[in-house]
Specification:
Number of strands: 16
Helix content: 25-40%
Strand content: 15-25%
CATH class of the largest domain: Alpha Beta
Number of domains: 2
Largest sheet: 8 strands, mixed
CATH superfamily of the largest domain: 2-enoyl-CoA Hydratase, Chain A, domain 1
């Protein structure tokens, strides 16, 4: 995001927790530009590299319990080589209590953890438990280190190659954001907190924005290429709708075929998801399904409405993807959307075919308002694929005629509108105004899920 969405401000004196602890970890109450939270810091020092002693684990556990008790966010800065070896099993037991305390915060208060140095073994898994993980450029994280990798595989590998910040943000998807240093991480935490409520029963704060709700977006009229096979940057659509064009992109370097971003629309914090035609033609694969499911669940937990921009021809085909479980992982995205109770606005830009149409928050998955550009193609599949299946014996000339007829009959948004799958076909120049009006209409939406112990997300 630009400087317009950077949280700054003076902070009051810190209120320490467990100030008399013998460990090196520290925890305190603090305010980020007026947003109260509990903070803990595990420091990578020259003596023990931030190894967690039983006392340190008690400090982190207390921090998590305090955040849940006060119903305020939990922020952590981690630079730890793992459990303190000299403490034996007690250090491992302490980490287990920390993990349990962090899990108790899940879906109740936001948890944001920053890797500012090494995060090895247990501390690495804490990054995985957090709602949002931030990594600094000189940090690294892994469950099993280079020495263990060499022992079991024979491969000699460095800390950075195995689990450096670049790997965390591009390959594994652990880090939602990559920043320069600890100060940059601290600033980003402030920005994120300014977009989130303190707890799950509170609405996000409204921003003071002077960008008109009905601002026209004529630049979107010429965005789509003439060829349906052509690509464009879907972030241009998201920026046109967002206030002042500001996006805070989530996991920007991982699963780039799906864009996820925080933004505000007329001062209202929202979560935006959009298929990215510039990457894998916007098709859905395992990584982007996981990324989207996690983002949808987070936004739903903390009352951020969802705005989804659709342009995808379907799930990416391939033997490897099927063997690796795209059925399970694709179901994660469907599951997250289906159980989301926040306001949900869907805008179909171009292609929306088959199973991907359903998964990308279609009307039948329960979205509240479904909009479409005149260029939208909502169907089981594209014309060429349909003709190859239904008329596989046709000559090339006949196929061309059949494809043209299929396009005229099915590949437009008006058929879907007639059947109630689309509420309105809108001019691209009115996209911001229509999305803003939809979000305003959904401001009072309240929906409760059936009472149960918990659901069973496909993992």
């Amino acid at each position: 995001m630009t400087d317009a969405m950077t949280a700054t401000g003076n902070r009051p004196d810190r209120v320490p927790l467990r100030a008399g602890s013998s460990g090196t970890a520290r925890a305190w109450l603090e305010s980020y530009d007026g947003r109260d939270c509990v903070v803990f810091d595990v420091e990578d020092n020259d003596v023990d590299r931030g190894a967690l002693s039983p006392a340190d684990s008690e400090t982190l556990e207390r921090a998590a319990h305090e955040a849940l008790l006060r119903r305020i966010p939990l922020v952590g800065f981690l630079a730890s080589s793992g459990a303190e070896i000299d403490s034996g099993i007690a250090a491992t037991m302490g980490w287990g209590r920390v993990a349990k305390a962090v899990v108790s915060c899940s879906g109740q208060v936001p948890t944001i953890f920053c890797a500012t140095g090494p995060a090895v073994s247990g501390p690495a898994l804490l990054l995985g438990l957090a709602d949002i993980a931030i990594a600094t450029e000189d940090s690294y994280a892994f469950v099993s280190g280079p020495r263990m990798v060499t022992q079991f595989t024979g491969e000699v590998i460095s800390n950075q190659t195995l689990g450096g910040a670049g790997q965390l943000s591009r390959r594994s998807g652990v880090a939602a954001f990559l920043v320069e240093d600890k100060q940059a991480a601290d600033d980003l935490v402030g920005t994120l907190l300014s977009l989130l409520p303190a707890h799950a029963d509170e609405l996000p704060p409204r921003w003071a924005i002077h960008d008109p709700a009905d601002r026209p977006t004529p630049e979107l009229c010429d965005l789509l290429p003439e060829s349906t096979l052509g690509s464009y940057d879907v972030r241009d659509v998201a920026r046109a709708v967002a206030d002042d064009g500001d996006l805070l992109e989530y996991k920007a370097d991982w699963a780039t075929n799906l864009v996820c971003a925080f933004a505000t629309v007329v001062g209202r914090p929202v979560g935006i998801l959009a298929n990215q035609p510039q990457s894998l033609a916007g098709t859905l694969d395992i990584a982007c399904s996981q990324k989207g499911a996690r983002f949808v669940s987070f936004c739903d937990a903390f009352n951020l409405p969802l705005v989804t921009f659709v342009d995808t021809s379907g799930f990416q085909p391939g033997k490897d993807l099927e063997w690796r479980g795209i059925i399970r992982h694709g179901a994660q995205l469907a599951f997250a959307y289906a159980r989301a109770t926040v306001g949900r606005v869907n805008v179909t830009l171009r292609k929306s075919y088959g199973g991907a149409y359903i998964v990308m928050d279609s009307r039948h998955m329960g979205n509240d308002i479904a909009l479409a550009w005149p260029s939208a193609e909502i169907a089981v599949m594209g014309a060429r694929g349909a003709v190859e299946i239904v008329n596989r014996g046709a000559s090339p000339t006949e196929r061309a005629e059949l494809e043209a007829a299929y396009e005229d009959r099915y590949l437009n948004p008006y058929i879907a509108a007639e059947r109630g799958s689309v509420d309105a076909v809108i001019d691209p120049a009115d996209t911001r105004a229509e999305v803003a009006a939809a979000l305003e209409l959904l401001e009072s939406k309240r929906e409760s899920l059936p009472r149960r112990r918990h659901d069973n997300t496909p993992l």
